[in-house]
Amino acid sequence: MQCRHPGVLPAHPRPLSAFLRPGLRPSAPGRPAGPAVQISERGETAARASWDVNHIPPARPVATMVHGVMPGPLPGAARPNRRSRMNLPPLTNPDHRTRQTCTGLCIASLLGMLAVVAFEPYTAAGFAHGLLYAPLILLAALTGDWRAVVLATGLALVLNALGAYLSPAPLPNAPDIVSLGNRLVGTLAIFTTGLLAVALQWQHARSLHSDRQLRRMADAIPQIVWSANPEGVLTYLNRATLEYTGDPDHSIPLTQNWLNALHPDDRERCMAQWMECVHSGRDYRIEFRILRHDGTYRWHTTSAKPVRDAGGRITHWYGTCIDVEDVKRVENDLRQAQRLESLGQLTGGIAHDFNNLLTVIIGNAELLRDQLADHPALSEQARLVHRAAQRGANLTQRLLAFARRQSLDAAAVDITVLLADSQLLIERTMGDHIATSVTPTPGLWPALIDAGQLEDALLNLALNARDAMPDGGWLTFETRNHTAATARSDSHGTLAAGDYVVVSVSDTGVGITAEDLGRVMEPFFSTKKRGKGTGLGLSMVYGFARQSNGHIEIRSVPGAGTTVELYLPRAAAESTPARREAPSPSLEAAMGRGQSILMVEDDDLVRGFGEGLLRELGYTVVPVARATEALAILERNDDIDLLFTDILMPGGINGHELAQRARRLRPGLRVVFTSGFTDDKGLNPETLRRTGAFLPKPYRRASLAACLDHAMHDHPAAPRDTDT
Q: What are the residue boundaries of the PAS domain, all occurrences included (predicted)?
């Protein structure tokens, strides 16, 4: 059997003869010159040729400094590619040399015994000739074969008995009993020596068998396992190391400089801590990156513990290297997802407060504009205030989109038709220097999304692509069906298992660097020059995809372009034509006729503005700031025709719960919800519309009038309860 593991200790019992030889180090003409880490002759010879495992010399570590650094226990036989394989010269056949050694030992033992028996006729019979056979039996034991020991012992016993007849005379002045006793002592020495030699060989074989079992277990472990001597020099690597480095044939010697396998940024830190642990005897634990056979660096957690003898001296170091690249990636994705979630909560809260302020600003700007119609200069100023406030409202909508708090009206949508309808607008937006193509997919599933929000998302992606291609290029829209058999996560969230329609938007622009790629979804983060963008485009697309129960993935190569993929959930039903909104009635037609409205709004500014606006629209208003106050009024007042309530309010009762309790008191009560912000606890616009109408903030006078008119006349008086 042959051993081809670079640096692996012999897996079979090694004979005692191996310890007589200082080492097999045949010359290797033509071997490349240069510094090398001479860890052990056993590892070097095993790596440079196919040595018989029963003839590997013992370890003789020689710690040679490499680039001024002491080598340590890291998986050294790493190489970037197979072109770096060293061409080592062949050596003499080791099996032939082993057989020569064993044969020589047996012949020497036999000749020695024959010499002893030949000496018998020239010595007195009382001489203890048997004692001379003991070292010859030990010589036979060095072959490592117990059968040679048995044969040598038996031959020695026979020759010792034969010598009694060959001796010419007893010792002078010694009785025959003395001569016989010496002969028996020699016989006992021969038998005892043979028995002890066999016992020692058996014990040695048993010890090495246990070592072989441990190494087999280490080779079965899918992690890197290694050992080092007390000086910190590597002495063993398991099979996982060889597979990781891409050398399953074990053709690279263990003595190759393992420092090349470490990431350049980790080498100094790793070696400093390792040498400190070697000198102090403390446990070793560190994380660093190791080069894999495919040329990539992967993070590993390396730990080692020293083994001490009875006197407290370190005899070995044993350690492992565990690949934690996937764990680190998941942790990084989780941190990024938590960061985006925190930013979403922050921006959503800011947008909610801004929407309350903008409701007052936009509404009063409209009133001023109409009241100052006879004063053109003042009316124009009111119009400018209104336009600026409307731009602020658009900005908060983008913030709400990132925070996944915008109002969505999901329905089954044919993406192919939507892309065809949007292509002309996108082409005009791109300009003549950018070619746009849309690749339809036959049999594309319908997607359950808000069509208008998807159009906005695609337009934002197109605008980003345009800015990334100042010198022109290609913008491509592609679609496909996708089934996710299992859930998967990345830094942008989790894609749940299920069916999806994938919309891919690719450009040939400047691309995004790896450092920026992890932040492009953050609001107000932009790689464009100052003044060229708000940094809300991709964050809005991200929020839309997540709020639609979908996912977004982005890939980019600097200088080659960027691809953004939107995973949109498949609709259970076939797509339906987009609903055409009925034309809103004129403001005069939507005026109230004295109906009583219970207005619940915790913000004083919004409540004051809303009360005045409702009275101007012809309604009787009962304004309150708390849900508990509204319930108390409903218990004692039967004249309330409609409940107009904010959704998110302090006091423990939100607008949805208030509507449900109000319906129990007044089953025929109509409800209109309003909010600039919804949360994830079922308070989305789709759920709210099952209970009543929904009017997002900031609202204009005309939209408020139309919504109230619709609720008073067209909305069911008692929709089904959604308390379950």
A: 210-281
pLDDT range class, residue 381, cuts 50, 70, 90 = confident
DSSP 439: E
Burial of residue 696, with CB atoms counted within 10 A of its CB: 0-12 exposed, 13-18 middle, 19 or more buried: buried
71 prior amide bond cis, ω within 30:
no
The DSSP letter of residue 670 is E
Helix (H) / strand (E) containing 362? helix 325-371
Alpha-carbon distance of 113 to 134, in angstroms, equals 10
Q: Phi and psi dihedrals of 478, rounded to 5?
A: -135, 155
Three-point CA angle 223, 225, 228, nearest 5°: 160
Q: Contact, 656 vs 675, CB < 8 A?
A: no
Whether 7 and 202 have beta carbons less than 8 Å apart is answered as no
Average pLDDT of the chain? 73
- Beta bridge partners of residue 504, listed in sequence order: 478, 565
Q: Which of 236, 206, 247 is nearest to 74 (CA)?
A: 236
Beta bridge partners of 564: 505, 554
**Angle at CA 402, nearest 5°, toward 398 and 404?**
110
636-640, 673-677, 681-685, 702-706: range with lowest mean pLDDT: 681-685
**Per-residue pLDDT reduced to its tens digit, 102-141:** 677 777 777 877 777 777 776 666 566 677 777 777 777 7
Residues in the chain: 724
Q: Which of 138, 232, 246, 248 is nearest to 194 (CA)?
A: 138
DSSP per position, 378-397 = HHHHHHHHHHHHHHHHHHHH
Pairing of strands 473-484, 498-507: antiparallel
Amino acid at 299: W
Q: Return d(Cα 442, Cα 264) in angstroms, integer.
A: 50
Helix/strand/coil (H/E/C) assignment for every residue in 138-168: HHHHCCCCHHHHHHHHHHHHHHHHHHHHHCC
Contacts of 252 (CB under 8 A, 6+ apart): 6, 47, 77, 79, 85, 86, 245
Q: What is the CA radius of gyration of the chain?
A: 44
> Within 10 Å of residue 345's Cβ, how many Cβ atoms?
13
- Residue by residue, DSSP assigns 528-542 as SPTTS--S-HHHHHH
- What is d(CA 160, CA 449) in angstroms, rounded to the nearest whole number? 102
Tally of helices (H runs) and strands (E runs) in the chain: 18, 21
Contacts of 102 (CB under 8 A, 6+ apart): 17, 143, 144, 145, 148
83-113 as b/e, with b when 16 or more CB fall inside 10 Å?
A: eeeeebeebeebeebbeebbeebbeebbebb
* Identity at 671, one-letter amino acid code: V
Q: Rounded to whole angstroms, what are the CA distances from 93 to 51, 97, 470?
A: 8, 7, 69
Per 3-state DSSP, what percentage of the chain is helix, strand, and coil (rounded to 5)?
45, 20, 35
Q: What is the mean pLDDT of residues 683-701?
A: 70
Structure tokens at 603: 């913000």
Angle (nearest 5°) at CA 421 between 418 and 422: 85
Q: How far apart are CA 91 and CA 51, in angstroms?
A: 10
Cα separation, 500 vs 491, in Å, equals 19
* Residue type present at position 277: C
Residue 154 CB neighbour total at 10 angstroms: 13
Token pair recorded at residue 68: 């001024």
The string of pLDDT tens digits covering residues 143-166 is: 777 777 788 888 878 877 777 667
**pTM of the full structure:** 0.47
Long-range contact set of residues 21-29: C-beta below 8 Å, sequence gap at least 24? 21/57, 22/57, 22/60, 23/57, 23/58, 23/60, 24/51, 24/55, 24/57, 24/94, 24/97, 26/91, 26/92, 28/88, 28/89, 28/91, 29/89
Backbone torsions φ then ψ of 441, nearest 5 degrees: -120, 120
Q: Give the whole-angstrom CA distance, residue 550 versus residue 493.
A: 10
